[in-house]
Structure formats: structure tokens, C-alpha cells
UniProtKB/TrEMBL annotation:
InterPro entries: Metal_Hydrolase, TatD-like, TatD-type_Hydrolase
Protein origin, superkingdom: Eukaryota
Binding site for a divalent metal cation 2: 175
Gene that encodes the chain: TATD
Example GO molecular function: single-stranded DNA 3'-5' DNA exonuclease activity
Species of origin: Ceratitis capitata (Mediterranean fruit fly)
Name the UniProt record assigns to this protein: Deoxyribonuclease TATDN1
Length: 328
């Protein structure tokens, strides 16, 4: 089996701190060779770029969930806000767990109509987004797979959030489902976008290329266990379309449980997952409630698809997150 990427111990905090100190003040445009950073880490870290810890499924044992994540090697967790209420709660968590949890402020496409119906709530949202602990705007975008909010309402609130991200100079997290062209048309209206991250990408390799050609980042989840197509996420990894310096990883907990027992998952990917990662995954995570501690297993599967070592993927994705979001 591959060497474990999740084997972070207490000593990892020291080595990770060294890398974070170097990355702390990096601007978005700074270009540093990942290989040059390798000496900073004795034990590698992984960073969860999206875990919905404001979800009520964690209301009784959040402290244990966070501790399990740390024990598994997850050193930082991005908690997205998807409404005014959850953005406020994500900000609260980032203050309770400083240096571990970082919040984002977003109005999910599904929740767009709430801002249309109660426009005064936008001012509270702007205040939350401007907080120091809030490191990105979003997830925002367009979702045409469900009709919780009308497309025109989604577009209006999406553009408002892009303007806000540009004004605050904070990265922009994109949620897109069956709406790529409209998303790109709206983004193309803006000349000086901050860094753009497409969260929980589930599209085709061709759709990914459209994003990558614009220098956007792509974040992957345990969805790769479900992807059975010949032109989707797996192809994106196997044929080298997705550069490792444009990749982030997230669990999207409590959703997107990575089913490592999936029948269509290639055998070399299954054997690439370490016993330690499987222990955390199978002991603490279920289809009903995924946890951030599943991230090392996801990283190891991505590494197997990309024909890279887990260490390489862990280091690159952690570095990308540190740089993008200015994590300390």
C-alpha cells in the first residue's frame, strides 16, 4: 500500500507551522516551486477546502468531529456559508476554533430568492463577508438542476457576490450545476477577478478545460467514487488535464461520502488507500454523515488516478489552499 498521507502526529504541528509561516504572507500572484517547499514538512498536512460543519448533523459532537479530523491529518478546514444565517454561523465557528476553521460567506444559488425577498439582509451579509476570519466569498453561482430559486434571481445575486469579492479582494467560490455557459458569461463581464475556485466539480473533462483555460482552480470531492462516465472527473485526473497546481480537495461533509467499496472503482485505486485512512473513513463516516477525517482517503484516491504519490498531492493541494486563502 502507498505510504500514508494521513499519518500526521503531534510533531506535524511543528513542521506544518514552518510551512505555514512561509506561506503566510504570500500574495495570490506569487509563483513558488512546490518542490522548494518540501523541506518544510516532515509530516505532510491536508487541508479540507469545504466542510459544511454548520449542518445540524454536527450539532451534538462538533468538538469530536474536529479532533478526529486533526488526528487524521486534516490541519485546516474551510467552512462555507451558503446563506446569511449559515455564513454568520461559519464565522462564529472560525472564532471558536481559530487557526483550524476558516469561514466563507456565500449565498448559494438555491437561497438566492431569500435576498430578493428580504433585500435588507444583504447588508448583514456584506458585514459578515468583510470579517477578517472570512477568507472567501461563496459558494455562489448558478444551479439549473433544481428550481429552488428562479434563474434570473440566481444571476442577480451571483453578480452581487462577484462585485463583493472584487471589492474585498477575496477569492470567489463557484457552485455550478448544468449552467456553465451562463456562469462563464457572467464572470467574463469582470476584468479583474480575484482567484476563482470551482467547488465540488462534477462536470466533464471538457467543461473542466473551459475553467482551466481561464486559470480557475478546481476542487474535488469523494464524488470521484460515483463517477462512472468515460468523460468525467476520473478522465480529468487520468489524462493529466488537471494540473496539480490548480487542484484543491474537499470533503463537502456531511455530503459526498467517498464509497471506497464502489464496484466501478479501479483496483489500483482501492489498493492505494492506506489502512489508516480506511480506519477513519469506515469507523466515523457514513453515507448519511461524512466527516472531514475522510479527506486523506480522498487524497490517496486522487493520487492513484493521477499516478502520483499521496505525499505529492497532499503537499500541492495544501500549498494551493494556503496561498489562495492566506491561511496562517
Amino acid at each position: 500500500m502507498a505510504q500514508s498521507v494521513a499519518g500526521a502526529t503531534n510533531s506535524a504541528n511543528t513542521s506544518a507551522g514552518a510551512g505555514m509561516a512561509i506561506s503566510k504572507n504570500l500574495g495570490v500572484g506569487v509563483d513558488i516551486d512546490i518542490v522548494d517547499m518540501k523541506h518544510c514538512f516532515e509530516n505532510l498536512i491536508v487541508i479540507d477546502a469545504g466542510a459544511n460543519l454548520t449542518n445540524k448533523k454536527y450539532s451534538r459532537d462538533l468538538e469530536s468531529v474536529i479532533q478526529r479530523a486533526k488526528d487524521a491529518g486534516v490541519q485546516k478546514i474551510m467552512v462555507p456559508g451558503t446563506s446569511v444565517k449559515s455564513s454568520k454561523e461559519a464565522l462564529r465557528l472560525s472564532r471558536i476554533y481559530p487557526d483550524i476553521i476558516y469561514s466563507t460567506a456565500g449565498i448559494h444559488p438555491h437561497d438566492s430568492k431569500s435576498i430578493i425577498e428580504e433585500p435588507n439582509t444583504w447588508f448583514e451579509f456584506e458585514h459578515i463577508a468583510a470579517s477578517q476570519e472570512c477568507v472567501a466569498i461563496g459558494p455562489c453561482g448558478l444551479d439549473y438542476q433544481r428550481d429552488f430559486s428562479e434563474p434570473e434571481a440566481q444571476k442577480e445575486i451571483f453578480e452581487k457576490q462577484i462585485h463583493l469579492a472584487c471589492r474585498l479582494n477575496k477569492p470567489l467560490l463557484i457552485h455550478e450545476r448544468s449552467a456553465q455557459q451562463d456562469v462563464l458569461d457572467i464572470l467574463d463581464k469582470f476584468e479583474n477577478l480575484p482567484p476563482v475556485i470551482v467547488r465540488g466539480f462534477m462536470g466533464t473533462a471538457d467543461e473542466a478545460v473551459e475553467y482551466l483555460n481561464r486559470r480557475f482552480y478546481i476542487s474535488l470531492t469523494g464524488y470521484l467514487c460515483k463517477d462512472k462516465s468515460d468523460s468525467g472527473v476520473r478522465k480529468l485526473l487520468e489524462n493529466g488535464t488537471l494540473p496539480i497546481d490548480r487542484l484543491l480537495v474537499e470533503t463537502d461533509s456531511p455530503f459526498m461520502y467517498p464509497n471506497t467499496r464502489a464496484s466501478k472503482l479501479p483496483q489500483h485505486v482501492k489498493t492505494g488507500i492506506t489502512e489508516r485512512s480506511l480506519l477513519y473513513l469506515h469507523r466515523y463516516c457514513t453515507f448519511q454523515r461524512n466527516e472531514p477525517c475522510s479527506l486523506p482517503a480522498i487524497v490517496e484516491m486522487i493520487a492513484a488516478f493521477m499516478k502520483k504519490t499521496p505525499d505529492e498531492v497532499a503537499l500541492a493541494t495544501a500549498f494551493n489552499a494556503l496561498k489562495l486563502f492566506g491561511l496562517s
